[in-house]
């Protein structure tokens, strides 16, 4: 759908309109291709084409930057004899705003305009030209058509309602046992307080990710809102089946977590969808929900607005300044935050202390890998900002000094702002090592169990964290353990997991250095306990719960399954919620 290069308009006075039109056509091309990918998610699910689903998820992430780059190149040719100043670009923005005023995706189009402008000019947010602040109400746009099927529950049997819900989604393949699943859902629903609800609203969009399709809705119960989620599976050799009914907010928050890959869902009005989801996940930031439904670039725009609001609200609070984030200082990244902000900022240092041997470009590549990879709920998503300007007066002196001293090439300090040329922004978590220092025995054991599960689930997704130290894992608000230090991650299939050779002589046994050959990708899981935890109850408990992670055979078995093309199941809800385990 990319358009042909055309000569500049015959009327130079209308060049601003032609530039706005080119940006609009670039956005329309991006949005068409975005929709095409999401529309074929159902076909992938029906065909059990799980590799195709993952490939689509990866290509959709790169799609945005590709279209922004292509549009910027076209503008460069169009404007090669024109020096576009702020006055000119303000006219471009106004012409663009006029054209998208009634778009269902106006807010996404505004973000695309911002990206093209920044890509062409290499600068940070410019409120004189860009759509930095929202152009309408906070919710940005209200669609004219319904996004959900609405069902009145008064006086109706639950099995009839469930059957009606499934009728809305006619898949082109057989069910495993549709009536059995209807009975299972109705029985669980009837046993839950949400059965007293008076109305069920089911989103018309099905949410696809990896090997699961989710029917998503909400129950309205006299002012209270409950989620209503039906995860669907399509196992080998069987038809489609319902795996669970999820009615609790804490079950659903994990499904839409910022630690998971983005959904493939055919969505017409993103802002309406975000509003709908936010009613039963009120703890989620609006920016997170845009990420979850695949509009991560607009999620980044919304986060920036959230950050501006936070700084305006706390402007008179002298304690709310940027400070070094709690935890052991990283050798690769300097991390800072604000005490009441739920995000951290990570800047790559100019030099890395031994034994780190990676480069800044390697670190960037690892973060890009994580962005495109299946994060299985165990790797933190991040926003990459280039040319991010933050107010100078909001920096504590120690934080500013550390930035300037250790990341000089990426920091510019002016009279009123600190300009960061490359910074990652992630959700704030409590480092696992700090969490264990203050947790009681029950909470410590829960965290250690989840730490072991995190390592196993990352391995199932073909990720070896590299550095398994507790300080590189964080504990979230809901006490979930998540990995967030990516400079040493590797694909499991690229690693060589070995058992430690048995020494044959006293000299070998007493040697301070390995007496055997160690290749660059050789990993000895038996050595993990020595640097993860000191001997004591925590290490003993971890061995009891997840001792296999210290065995090369465990890793090699996973490696062989991954090399054979297996995509392993990692469910974002508890095993106990499943109907047919």
From TrEMBL:
GO terms for molecular function: [isocitrate dehydrogenase (NADP+)] kinase activity; AMP binding; ATP binding; phosphoprotein phosphatase activity; protein serine/threonine kinase activity. It comes from the Bacteria. One of its GO terms (biological process) is glyoxylate cycle. Pfam families: AceK_kinase, AceK_regulatory. Residues 20-314 form the Isocitrate dehydrogenase kinase/phosphatase (AceK) regulatory domain. One of its GO terms (cellular component) is cytoplasm. Residues 320-574 form the Isocitrate dehydrogenase kinase/phosphatase (AceK) kinase domain. NCBIfam families: PRK02946.1 (NF002804). This is Bifunctional isocitrate dehydrogenase kinase/phosphatase. It comes from Neolewinella marina. The lineage of its organism: Bacteria, Pseudomonadati, Bacteroidota, Saprospiria, Saprospirales.
């Amino acid at each position: 759908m990319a358009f042909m290069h055309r000569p500049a308009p015959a009327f130079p006075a209308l060049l601003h309109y032609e530039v706005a039109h080119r940006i609009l056509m670039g956005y329309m091309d991006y949005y068409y291709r975005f929709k095409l990918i999401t529309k074929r998610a159902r076909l992938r699910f029906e065909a059990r084409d799980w590799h195709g689903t993952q490939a689509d998820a990866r290509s959709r992430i790169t799609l945005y930057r590709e279209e922004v780059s292509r549009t910027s190149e076209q503008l460069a040719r169009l404007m090669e004899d024109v020096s576009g100043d702020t006055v000119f670009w303000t006219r471009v923005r106004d012409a663009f705003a006029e054209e998208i005023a009634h778009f269902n995706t106006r807010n996404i189009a505004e973000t695309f305009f911002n990206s093209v402008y920044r890509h062409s000019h290499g600068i940070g947010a410019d409120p004189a030209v860009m759509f930095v602040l929202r152009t309408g109400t906070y919710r940005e746009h209200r669609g004219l058509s319904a996004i959900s099927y609405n069902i009145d529950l008064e006086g109706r049997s639950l099995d009839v309602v469930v059957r009606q819900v499934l009728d809305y989604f006619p898949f082109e393949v057989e069910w495993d046992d549709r009536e059995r699943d209807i009975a299972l859902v109705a029985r669980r629903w009837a046993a839950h307080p949400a059965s007293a609800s008076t109305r069920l609203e089911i989103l018309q969009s099905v949410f696809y990710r990896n090997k699961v399709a989710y029917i998503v809705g909400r129950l309205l119960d006299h002012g209270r809102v409950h989620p209503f989620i039906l995860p669907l599976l399509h196992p080998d050799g069987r038809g489609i089946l319902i795996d669970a009914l999820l009615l609790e907010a804490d079950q659903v928050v994990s499904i839409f977590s910022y630690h998971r890959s983005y959904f493939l869902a055919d969505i017409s009005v993103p802002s309406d969808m975000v509003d709908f989801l936010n009613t039963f996940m009120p703890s989620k930031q609006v920016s997170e929900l845009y990420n979850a439904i695949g509009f991560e670039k607009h999620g980044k725009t919304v986060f920036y607005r959230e950050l501006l609001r936070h700084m305006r609200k706390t402007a008179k609070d002298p304690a709310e300044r940027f400070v070094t984030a709690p935890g052991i200082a990283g050798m690769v990244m300097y991390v800072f935050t604000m005490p009441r902000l739920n995000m951290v900022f990570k800047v790559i240092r100019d030099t890395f202390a031994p034994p780190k041997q990676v480069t800044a470009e390697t670190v960037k590549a690892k973060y890009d890998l994580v962005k495109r990879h299946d994060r299985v709920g165990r790797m933190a998503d991040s926003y990459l900002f280039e040319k991010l300007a933050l107010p100078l007066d909001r920096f504590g002196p120690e934080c500013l000094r550390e930035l300037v001293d250790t990341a000089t090439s990426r920091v510019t300090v002016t009279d009123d702002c600190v300009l960061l040329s490359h910074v990652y922004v992630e959700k704030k978590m409590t480092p696992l090592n700090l969490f264990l220092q203050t947790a009681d025995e029950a909470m410590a054991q829960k965290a250690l169990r989840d730490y072991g599960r995190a390592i196993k689930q990352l391995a199932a997704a073909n990720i070896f964290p590299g550095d398994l130290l507790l300080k590189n894992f964080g504990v979230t608000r809901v006490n979930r353990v998540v990995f967030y230090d990516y400079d040493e991650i590797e694909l499991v299939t690229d690693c060589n997991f070995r058992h430690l050779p048995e020494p044959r002589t006293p000299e070998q046994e007493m040697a301070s250095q390995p007496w055997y050959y160690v290749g660059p990708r050789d990993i000895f899981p038996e050595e993990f306990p020595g640097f993860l935890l000191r001997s004591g109850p925590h290490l003993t408990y971890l061995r009891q719960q997840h001792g296999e992670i210290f065995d090369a055979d465990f890793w090699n078995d996973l490696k062989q399954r991954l090399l054979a093309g297996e995509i392993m199941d990692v469910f974002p809800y508890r095993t106990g919620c499943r109907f047919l385990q």
